[in-house]
Specification:
The protein has nine helices and ten strands. The strands form two sheets. Strands 6-7-8-3-9-10 form a six-stranded mixed β-sheet, sandwiched between helices. Helix 4 crosses helix 5 and helix 5 runs parallel beside helix 6. The radius of gyration is 18 Å and the shape is globular. By secondary structure, the protein is an alpha/beta fold. The chain has a domain of 147 residues: 3-Layer(aba) Sandwich (Rossmann fold).
Amino acid sequence: MALATITNLHKSFGENTVLDGIDLQIEKGEIVVILGPSGSGKSTLLRCLNFLETPELGVIDIAGQSVDAATSHTKDILALRRHTAFVFQNYALFKNKTALGNITEALTVVKGMAAPVAEGIAMDILKSVGLADRRDAWPSELSGGQQQRIGIGRAMALDADLMLFDEPTSALDPEKVYEVLDLMKQLARQKRTMIIVTHEIPFAREVADRIIFMDGGKIIEQGMPEQVLDAPQDSRTQTFLRQVLS
């Protein structure tokens, strides 16, 4: 049985249709990478999965928690969000909290843990992302790569059923990208269920169980990495890969 099922998902901004009837299933432990040109709808799809953007139509079911966009209520959306953890392009750390505090906050506020217990777990996570020595650093004192690793650590702390990564390396200097990709490879080896929007093609080839190519708010084709990357069937996929690999 699928961990997540998305049925007939629609999202528009004014006259611009961004998602045009998306149907998708994600299996438990599956790593799905979404590729596509700018404006194809891939980031919007990710944001709709936990209602950071509100779709007009469609049903989203994650770990048995189902929300119909047409009749959604706040309590249902909040319940759905508890099954997801989101890693943003721009890190989205709390500027008034230390590295440790950013991870602890997720545990005390979302999971209701006592502060001493949360701090112990947060320290273990900081060690696992290689930043234990930066526990008391403010976001402004961290590099972009370090901030994103804290952002991923915060998502790890939630221990959600589904981790959502929205172009997690796009805001990084090139020499910092590997730090974040290496951490994500660790998560992949743990078989955490992840949907990743990225342009990092070698990374996608290495970690993905399935690659989805989107364009114009639709899923154009999908399959194993070697199918989509080495033998794409649709001309739009072929053009995109030529451009990003050139």
